[in-house]
Give the backbone structure.
Amino acid sequence: MFGFGGKRHLVGLDIGSSSIKLLELKGVRGGYQLVHFGHAPLHGEAIVEGALMDAAAVADTIRSLVQAHKVKTKDVATSVSGHSVIIKKISLPTMSDKELADQIRWEAEQYIPFDINDVNLDFQVLDRGGAGGQMEVMLVAAKKNMITDYSAVVAEAGLNPAVVDVDSFALSNMFEVNYPEERDRTVALINIGCSVLNLNVVRKGTAAFNRDVSIGGKQFTEELQKQFGLSAEDAEAAKLGKGGGGVGKDDVLAALQPVAGSIAGEVSRSLDFFGSTAPDERISKILLSGGAARTPGLAEVIAERTGVPVEMANPFKKIAYDPKVFDPEHIEYMGPSAAVAVGLALRKANER
């Protein structure tokens, strides 16, 4: 949402709490083709609740990814999420974009729980044809210090932070390109990262509801560490079904169920709230993405709790790639983790 450059293609840089994903696309006839895709882990204290605690380590990791994958493009789109970002759909009297730009700061003060001088603001008109001369507007506010920190760490890595977006909007970009057959339906996009769950309900191609929740894959890892006395590395391997610490798959599944239930409960409550604001809307499916999306049993628990079919998102569904360059099995496995990065790589600078 917050752009700083011209209209050109960008490298998607998803800076997560546990890893960084770098992805570049190029436009081809009829769509897009994958040019570069890399990922690298971060140590557990580099980013805590979205705050950059070890900016040098983050910059070094980005720099290493760029060098390892021989990425030449310097302009990047990255994104933020969590409690420092507020996304609110509001109703305002119908007005021109210029009038709205002049008034949005005053309007935002009524809805943003931060000092208005401490945030960057952006907005997008969703519907000008509302009842009673009203229009629907999506208001986005992100704390300036967070935007500054993420921009600075990208610059420290030798890149140009052309766009700082929001995770849930990057998910919308990914969805729009890869799932054209779903555009006339209402779909919940749920991205579960290490420490934040992003939920974005898209209705007929437009964001209808957004929420970030401070819960994610880290809770699964911590539960396995606590129950079986595992190291963080062994717990992570066990969570992914790789037999970390010698713990059996059935024991892992049983241990993960309470955390899966907590996440499913948050999803269910969020969708219930959306349903209360749009009682005539029926969510046709949930598309699940993020590093924690493949946690054993999670998709099944979410489907059971919400009563909505759950499908693993495929961010490369409509994106071509050379199987001689990118291993198809690896692309399929990493797909859910790449959802935000794909959405960012689809951005253009100065493009809403």
